[in-house]
Design a protein that fits this description.
single chain; Jelly Rolls; Arc Repressor Mutant, subunit A; 11 helices; 8 strands; binds beta-L-rhamnopyranose; binds nickel (II) ion
Length: 289
């Protein structure tokens, strides 16, 4: 049976959606996935990191995000040390203020986790010693707040988490490798799509934001996300709809319009296609009628 790490087991009972797990060293840990996302900062040692069809060697300064249902495992550990920042993306408003305008944010937090197969290892985020020290310092502050849990810890912890996300997004953007450049351009396009999620954006407009021709844009977009821009938009809208179905009592038709569909039958079909259930059943399963 596949091992899935549960939110209940890895987060504080007060429900705060961020948790820090330091591994000094990381023990052997077989294949598993998580009900949450994991931002991993490697601070020392080495190992082989295996995820999906990809595997690569990890060393100090490597940073990656494992999200969704992706499986991963560490093999051939040699004193590997890391800081794991566990977070629940659905419970966090990460893309606040002007963060979505940082292409590296999309590259690291949206594209990288869904990247099916990396062409080359140069495409990943690797921090230099100074950057690593800076990020580790923020991670330590985050950890101190979470351990103390004094009044205001949530606010302070969130501030550190955001600072880390911002720093890492910027660092990613500084990577000059062609693979990353391509990811960053797609990141620009995703920023644009996200800012305009309620309306239909056409291909020419989108390709322009990535400074590519429509043809090559589609090709690069597909290799970065494993899907088409239209399918990506639909998935984002359905994700938003899921959250509205869970957390509000708005009617299904209203939710369809809220998230940018202009035909609720089409919404229901797409919803079923992606989640395997109808919006109504989805809501029922979560106990809201
Ligand atoms: C493990 C290992 C896993 C992580 C859990 C929380 O030691 O680092 O990757 O998901 O901790
Ligand atoms: Ni893990």
């Amino acid at each position: 049976m596949k091992r899935i790490l549960k939110i209940d087991e890895w987060f504080h009972p007060d429900g705060f959606p961020i948790s820090v797990e330091r591994r000094e060293p990381q023990e052997l840990f077989g294949p598993h996935s998580h009900e949450f996302a994991e931002l991993v900062i490697v601070t020392g040692g080495k190992c082989l990191h295996v995820t999906g069809q990809d595997s690569w060697e990890l060393t100090a300064g490597d940073v990656f995000v494992i999200a969704g249902t992706r499986e991963h495992e560490y093999r051939d550990l040699v004193d590997l040390r890391l800081v794991n920042i566990l977070y629940q993306p659905n419970q966090l408003k990460m893309a606040l203020l002007d963060l979505p305008s940082v292409a590296g944010y999309h590259a690291l937090f949206t594209l990288e986790p869904s990247w099916k197969k990396r062409q080359s290892s140069k495409g990943r985020l690797h921090l230099n010693a100074k950057e690593l020290a800076q990020v580790v310092e923020v991670a330590e502050r985050l950890e101190v707040e979470l351990n103390a849990r004094e009044p205001g810890f949530g606010f302070m912890a969130m501030a550190s988490f955001m600072q880390m996300v911002g720093l890492l997004s910027r660092c990613y953007g500084r990577n000059p490798s062609p693979d990353v450049k391509a990811l960053l351009r797609i990141g620009e396009a995703l920023s644009h799509l996200e800012r305009n999620i309620h309306r239909d954006v056409n291909l020419e407009e989108l390709a322009k934001t990535a400074h590519m021709s429509p043809r090559s844009f589609l090709r690069v977009f597909h290799s970065a996300t494993g899907t088409s821009p239209l399918a990506w938009v639909i998935e984002q809208r359905i994700n938003r709809a899921c959250s509205l179905l869970r957390h509000t009592e708005r009617r299904v038709t209203e939710i369809a319009f809220d998230v940018g569909f202009n035909d609720s039958n089409y919404f229901t079909r797409q919803f079923h296609k992606l989640t395997g259930v109808s919006p109504r059943d989805y809501r029922l399963r979560r106990g809201i009628t």
